[in-house]
Design goal:
14 helices, globular, alpha+beta, Jelly Rolls
Length: 326
């Protein structure tokens, strides 16, 4: 699949300008508010070229900017993760300076002003809203939104930095390449939460160290309430926080209860239920009327057909296509 194919479709918008002020205005609109200290245009002016889209409240863009620019970011609250593909990019906060090489990822700290100096950059940027990060961090660790902080632009490790790149690349080539998938609330919700969970795992933050000393006990009745809520809302992208609210317990406590009593997680349980619904649809559908495995899998939030087929065979002992035919 070529880069042009990845960024094709009406849901991907394009913008280009050689005017410096317009280029800076675009950066402020799509990424983060900045105070420009210096901008040295090349022979073609600012040389900004970008393609961008929205996955609900998550912003994604591929941007090439040729001008030499020095700026200071303004604290925004939202999280911006940049994958450096080429060019020169340096970020500094106080005495801590981080020089990116092609292939590196960096976090523009959401709660701090950061000095940035770049020249002729090609980057892939993801902007995650603060509310989404707080929701996912609370469900995973129990930390409150006010206590969630990111203090370093560097990934925890080079391996986790590569994991971020692989996750974004996978979503770009699957969900973000298909307007219908992006419009599917179940799939869009899963993609948003995957990005937030990955960011929380990749970059140092207070949620990584959060420990709940007393997550609370979950009764069998509360666990059944959570499971019933999943059964009734399988067509939506459910969060652990929603399931916990329905059960009347804390998210962390619900996670521990699922592991202790069901040997799974709330998210994995919801996926299992969606697999069951897909199985029922495959049994009830007639391929001669145009029904396909891909259509049914997508309906229940499974975007990777090969992985769906593998998991389906592991559960039911046959392929989804065989179930549909018979």
């Amino acid at each position: 699949m070529t880069a042009g194919t990845v960024y094709s479709g009406p849901h991907w918008q394009r913008y280009a300008t050689t005017d410096t002020d317009q280029a800076h205005a675009f950066i402020r609109r799509s990424l983060i508010d900045v105070n420009v200290r210096f901008s040295g245009e090349g022979p073609d002016g600012a040389g900004l070229r970008t393609v961008f889209t929205q996955l609900d409240d998550v912003g994604v863009n591929r941007m090439h900017y040729s001008a030499r620019t020095q700026l200071q970011t303004a604290p925004a609250g939202d999280l911006i993760v940049t994958h450096m593909m080429s060019g020169r990019y340096a970020a500094a906060r106080g005495k801590d300076e981080y020089l990116l090489r092609p292939g590196d990822v960096v976090l523009i700290l959401p709660d701090h002003a950061v000095e940035v100096d770049f020249t002729d950059i090609d980057t892939f940027n993801v902007r995650l809203p603060r509310g989404l990060l707080e929701e996912v961090a609370s469900a995973q660790t129990g930390i409150s939104g006010a206590d969630l902080r990111f203090d370093s632009p560097r990934p925890v490790s080079a391996r986790l930095g590569r994991h971020w790149i692989q996750t974004v690349s996978y979503l770009t080539r699957t969900v973000l390449s298909d307007r219908a998938l992006m419009a599917n609330p179940l799939i869009a919700g899963q993609a948003r939460h995957l990005l937030a969970s990955t960011a929380l795992a990749v970059f140092p933050n207070t949620g990584l160290d959060a420990q709940l000393r007393h997550p609370g006990e979950v009764t069998s009745q509360a666990l059944r309430r959570a499971m019933a809520y999943v059964e009734e809302n399988t067509d939506r992208a459910l969060t652990v926080a929603e399931m916990a609210t329905a059960a009347g317990v804390r998210p962390r406590a619900l996670q521990l209860a699922f592991r202790r009593h069901r040997d799974t997680t709330p998210t994995q349980y919801a996926r299992r239920v969606r697999m069951e619904r897909a199985h029922r649809d495959l049994q009830a559908s007639d391929p001669t009327t145009g029904a396909t495995v891909a259509m049914i899998a997508t309906r229940w939030g499974f975007t990777h057909l090969g992985r769906f087929s593998t998991d389906y065979r592991a559960v039911y002992g046959t392929s989804p296509s065989h179930t549909l035919r018979t």
